[in-house]
């Protein structure tokens, strides 16, 4: 039994948008230490449940699950993967981090590298950044003409429909932090020797583009938040709440599938294991 249940509907597009979701929200949990402890207990229970569901999901083999994680720098993508998915069997999970495209990737259409990374049926794919960079950083930094990135919304919706029709279920998560929280986290990267390696001067340049990104995110939610693949705008200032929300979403996505243990292809009653 959980201490509390997160209501995901409030965070899902089209109900949710950047203004309706408070980055500091802690949902049904009190904001104090008791709330944090309760959420951490619940995360533990959810992670156990996720692992159980994953076994049948793998055996069933008819569906793939794709968790797409987008956020600003220091939004918590890495921490979410480390903590909210910690109970999964690594054999059934594939994490792909999308960096600046290589020369080879740029010589193809923008979905080429993404399609290759899509999970096969029975597996859970995690995208740390994704094809959505192609309507975010590419838009804000004007890496291609507007007509090119604008056409991508339709390409993305069609691509995701293709994957959905082939059995892939989407969980598209935006980790929503506010400007003050980002400042705190970037400062920590400068101050803490164990975090220095994560700091990039580029993070500060991107921080300066806060409003442009907000606009790009808002349009992305509006154009690509479909019925089959809505966005979940996750309050992410408090890591302990963020983790419990994402874990809840993964568990709900797996529970929504009509999973079953596959029938054996042979008549088991005709076999016996001898001593
Ligand atoms: P990080 O996630 O901190 O390792 O940084 C990866 C970097 O790659 C970020 O600055 C992204 O904006 C950038 N990136 C990812 N995908 C693309 C893309 N399609 N086009 C341009 N830059 C990208
Ligand atoms: Mg970075």
Task: Assign the CATH class.
Answer: Alpha Beta
The whole-number mean of residue pLDDT values reads: 98
Total beta-strand segments: 5
Number of continuous helical runs: 10
The CATH superfamily label reads P-loop containing nucleotide triphosphate hydrolases
Characterize the biggest β-sheet: 5 strands, parallel
Order of helices and strands: HEHEHHEHHEHHHEH
Which cofactor or ligand species appear?
A: adenosine monophosphate, magnesium ion
Alpha-carbon distance between the two ends = 42 Å
Q: What is the domain tally?
A: 1
**Rg over CA atoms:** 20 Å
What is the name of the CATH topology? Rossmann fold
Shape: globular
Strand sequence of the main sheet, in spatial order?
A: 2-3-1-4-5
β-sheet strand percentage? 5-15%
Q: Please mark out the parts with pLDDT under 50 across 5 or more consecutive residues, or reply none.
A: none
SSE class: alpha/beta
Share of helical residues: 40-55%
Tell me the CATH architecture: 3-Layer(aba) Sandwich
């Amino acid at each position: 039994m959980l201490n509390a249940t997160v209501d995901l509907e409030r965070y899902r597009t089209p109900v949710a948008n950047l203004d309706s979701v408070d980055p500091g929200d802690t949902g049904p949990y009190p904001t104090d230490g008791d709330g944090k402890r309760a959420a951490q207990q619940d995360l533990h229970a959810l992670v156990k449940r996720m692992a159980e569901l994953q076994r049948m999901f793998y055996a069933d083999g008819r569906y793939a699950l794709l968790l797409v994680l987008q956020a600003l720098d220091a939004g918590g993508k890495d921490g979410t993967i480390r903590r909210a998915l910690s109970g999964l069997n690594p054999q059934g999970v594939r994490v792909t981090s999308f960096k600046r495209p290589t020369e080879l990737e740029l010589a193809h259409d923008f979905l080429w590298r993404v399609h290759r990374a899509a999970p096969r049926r029975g597996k859970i794919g995690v995208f740390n950044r994704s094809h959505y960079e192609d309507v975010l950083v590419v838009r804000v930094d004007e890496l291609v003409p507007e007509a090119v990135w604008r056409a991508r919304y339709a390409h993305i919706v069609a691509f995701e429909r293709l994957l959905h029709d082939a059995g892939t279920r989407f969980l598209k998560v935006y980790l929503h932090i506010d400007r003050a929280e980002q400042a705190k986290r970037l400062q920590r990267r400068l101050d803490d020797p164990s975090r220095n390696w994560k700091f990039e001067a580029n993070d500060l340049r991107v921080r300066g583009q806060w409003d442009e990104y907000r606009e790009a995110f808002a349009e992305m939610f509006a154009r690509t938040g479909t019925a089959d693949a809505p966005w979940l705008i996750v309050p992410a200032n408090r890591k302990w709440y963020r983790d419990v929300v994402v874990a809840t979403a993964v568990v709900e996505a797996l529970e929504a599938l009509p999973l079953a243990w596959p029938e054996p292809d042979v008549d088991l009653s005709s076999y016996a294991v001898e001593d």
